[in-house]
Design brief:
By secondary structure, the protein is an alpha/beta fold. The chain has four domains: 1-159, Beta-Lactamase (2-Layer Sandwich); 176-195 and 325-408, 3-Layer(bba) Sandwich (Glucose Oxidase, domain 1); 201-317, Enzyme I, Chain A, domain 2 (Orthogonal Bundle), CATH 1.10.274.10; 438-759, Phosphoenolpyruvate-binding domains (TIM Barrel, Alpha-Beta Barrel). Helix content is 43%, strand content 15%. The protein is built from 26 helices and 22 strands. The protein is globular. It catalyses: L-histidyl-[protein] + phosphoenolpyruvate = N(pros)-phospho-L-histidyl-[protein] + pyruvate. Its main location: cytoplasm. Its cofactor is Mg(2+). It is an enzyme of class 2 (transferase).
């Protein structure tokens, strides 16, 4: 059964037209299970019914015509119950409803399974037999398993809008609305720009073409160019590699022959596909054939077939041999990438960057945090969308809701432009109070710090409105090199930072790599990196790295008194004790050197990040050996909820407004006050409007955030009353789920005139 299942899924996945794929699935199921009928119904939530979209055994004329209400018939019952239904005589079941159009009078046995993706019923898959019988447990298990795999494909197809993508000429008024995860608030409009658009058979979006002769010519010309390229490569490596390696080129030549690959590709072109799509379909079929071979050597040749296909595709599209398109970004660019990186943003001209769309990631992935630090609207997690769909298309991006509109019509564009204007007016109002103090309406003063170091280029300018730096991430200089930075290189960087504003506190976090921040020259391979060797665990295991960094920090602070050192990923008191021992060792060494030159060195304050749940139960002990606490709300949320914040599949579960997270934050605030240890929140929650209100109500008086959010947070503080915020907190702490918490907070912000900070428009 497993082999059959894999074969069916693989075959169906390779069919570019979604309706054809579903018809193929129905046909293959009849063959595999020896049943009389197989049908697929897809849910239409707008009209509250299931539509028959494919069938083998029922009347073909009913496809696209027969709909079954969500509360009607056996199909509706399966959708309601969200579980399989196995009946020996369907027509005697009380929920059976007769639909004459489908012509199922002769069928009795019935088996149906819901198609569910991320808790949502997308459709129903049914089997029917003429004679009365109950389907076996194996048949039921097979159908359920297939429905689970089909769910992913249906979700992807819905996201792609397959029918529109397959049109040769998309109408001028064509518009596509996509949904992602809000990554960075704000509105942006511009043209989609793929910085490095890879030519890939796998990722190519299928298209049809009516000009068959032109497509054949394009294909044949591309094959000739590829053959010429192969001849040059083969000649170049002659004498440098064994003959059996060069023999791989013979495979290329054979496949490029008109009687093998060419014949099949031109056959697909005659069926109405363009040359790239025809090549994709044939090459992927060859790949499947090689992967199914018993001989290991021949199975490996599937990689060569794919490479050859990519080369031909590149030549069809007129792209360089390196398979990269390099062009200048337009004036108003929406950067589109599989995953946005620090290097990508550093290389991109900031004056042209209007917004970011990242196919992977969640609202608290590295890319989203960087976008917020730069003040650039971003949407994450559009993983089901072919990236080419957004290239060179006009895009409207809503970082508040996660909506991405491709090729908007004139009406939508006008409405969006109005929202952008209102957002600009709100920004001007906020800036009009930039020099005023961060004091609540009932005269409670709050200290605001900045988080820095996420992108040196983006954050190199100091913020005159901050009270200092609450978190400097030292790992970026490590990540941007091909080796560990020397002590002197670190001293020069840290000294520049500390001298910039010597009268303001500057907190440096020791090296925090691992998890989603690997060092290219120090690779760490772990099954679960977020629970692995990262932060203080790594640096204590390598004191030579830790001591060099601490010495650099201390040497940079000679003659100054504004350095604080913060330790990340602390889980036990012993880790802090060992780190402090090494810090003291480095201090005595640097102090002796300073005294020899007549200079003074101050012992910096030592603090810890509160981001691992274990430390919540060790606050009394930690308070005796550290000078301050700093709450990393991002990782604290991740570890409390057991959710990888970079995993788009569970992105909806990651929520800093979860009651458990709020309870933990409240506990930290109370204990910090009890033990008289200063505490700062330096996670993303400190820069969110709702987060600010709740944190102040809990008792936090120090917040650290990215530069872009500081003035906004100050404006929030100046417009709230602590008494009303405390009332909000008391109510929020009684709620059971994050959605209710968020709704309560948003209602509160609306009531005090701050609603424009959590949605588009004033």
């Amino acid at each position: 059964m497993l082999t059959t299942l894999k074969r069916i899924v693989q075959e169906v996945n390779q069919i570019p037209v979604f309706d054809d794929a579903l018809s193929c699935l129905a046909n293959r199921l009849i063959e595999a299970l020896k049943v009389d009928s197989c049908s697929i119904y897809l849910a239409d939530y707008e009209h509250q019914h299931f539509m028959l979209v494919a069938t083998e055994g029922l009347a073909k004329s009913a496809v696209g015509q027969v709909s079954i209400g969500f509360s009607e018939g056996l199909v509706g019952l399966i959708g309601q119950r969200e579980e399989p239904l196995n009946i020996s005589d369907a027509q005697r079941h009380p929920r059976f409803k007769h639909y004459p159009e489908v012509q199922e009078d002769n069928y009795h046995a019935f088996l149906g399974a819901p198609i569910i993706h991320q808790r949502k019923v997308l459709g129903v898959l049914t089997l029917q037999q003429q004679h009365k019988r109950r389907f076996s447990e194996d048949e039921e298990a097979f159908l359920v398993t297939l429905a689970m795999q089909l769910a992913v494909e249906i979700a992807n197809a819905k996201a792609r809008g397959s029918i529109n993508l397959l049109q040769e000429n998309i109408p001028k008024d064509w518009q596509k609305s996509l949904k992602g995860v809000p990554g960075s608030s704000g509105l942006a409009s511009g043209v989609g720009y793929l910085q490095n658009m890879m030519v890939s058979i796998r990722n190519h979006v299928p298209k049809r073409s009516k000009n068959k002769q032109t497509q054949v010519q394009n294909y044949r010309q591309a094959v000739k160019q590829t053959q010429a390229d192969m001849a040059i490569l083969s000649e170049r490596i002659q004498g440098e590699v064994p003959d059996d390696v060069r023999a791989i080129f013979q495979l290329y030549y054979h496949l490029l022959d008109a009687n093998s690959l060419g014949r099949d590709v031109e056959k697909e072109i005659k069926l109405g596909w363009d040359a790239p799509t025809s090549l994709k379909m044939v090459v992927e079929n060859y790949i499947r054939q090689f992967q199914a071979m018993n001989d290991p050597y021949m199975r490996e040749r599937a990689v060569d077939v794919e490479d050859m296909g990519n080369r031909v595709l590149a030549n069809i599209m007129g792209i360089s041999a390196k398979n990269l398109v390099k062009r200048e970004p337009p004036e108003h660019s929406i950067l589109v990438a599989e995953e946005v990186t620090a290097v990508m943003l550093a290389e991109f001209p900031s004056e042209k960057l209007m917004g970011i769309v990242s196919m992977r990631g969640s609202n608290n992935s590295h890319a989203a945090i960087m976008a917020r630090a730069m003040g650039v609207p971003a949407v994450m997690g559009l993983s089901n969308i072919p990236i080419a769909l957004l290239n060179e298309k006009e895009i409207l991006l809503d970082g508040y809701t996660g909506d991405v509109i491709v090729s908007p019509n004139a009406t939508i564009r006008r409405e969006f432009d109005q929202l952008v204007l209102e957002e600009q007016l709100l920004s001007e109002r906020i800036r009009s109070e930039d020099t005023l103090p961060a004091i609540t309406t009932d005269n409670c003063e709050i200290r605001l710090f900045t988080n820095a170091g996420l992108s040196l280029e983006a954050e190199k300018n100091d913020n005159p409105f901050s009270d200092g730096v609450g978190l400097f991430r030292t790992e970026i200089p490590f990540m941007m090199r091909e080796r560990f930075p020397t002590e002197q290189e670190q001293v020069e960087l840290y000294r520049t930072l500390l001298e910039a504003e010597p009268n303001k506190p500057f907190t440096m976090r020791t090296l925090d790599v691992g998890g989603d921040k690997p060092l290219p020259y120090f690779p760490i391979s772990e099954e679960n990196p977020f629970l692995g060797w990262r932060g203080i665990r790594l640096t204590l295991d390598h004191p030579e790295i830790f001591l060099v960094q601490i010495r650099a920090m201390l040497r940079a602070s000679i003659g100054l008194d504004n350095l604080s050192i913060m330790l990340p990923m602390i889980t036990s008191v012993s880790e802090v004790s060992e780190a402090k021992r090494l810090i003291r060792q480095a201090f005595y060494e640097v102090e002796e050197e300073a005294q020899e030159h007549g200079e003074s060195l101050q012992m910096p304050k030592i603090g810890v990040m509160l981001e691992v749940p274990a430390v919540l139960y060790q606050l009394p002990q930690l308070s005796k050996i550290v000078d301050f606490f700093s709450v990393g709300s991002n990782d604290l949320t991740q570890y409390l909820l057991a959710v990888d914040r970079n995993n788009s599949r569970v992105a909806e579960l990651y929520d800093s407004y979860h009651p458990a997270v709020l309870s933990a934050l409240h506990t930290i605030a109370k204990h910090s006050e009890l033990f008289q240890v200063p505490v700062t929140v330096c996670g993303e929650l400190a820069g969110e409007p709702g987060g600010v209100v709740l944190l102040l109500a809990m008792g936090y008086r120090k917040l650290s955030m990215n530069n872009h959010n500081l003035l906004k947070v100050k404006w929030i503080i100046r417009n709230i009353h602590l008494g009303s915020a405390e009332q909000l907190l008391a109510k929020v702490l009684t709620l059971n789920n994050p959605q209710d918490v968020r709704e309560e907070i948003n209602n509160y912000l609306e009531s005090i005139g701050l609603g424009g900070l959590v949605r588009a428009g004033i």
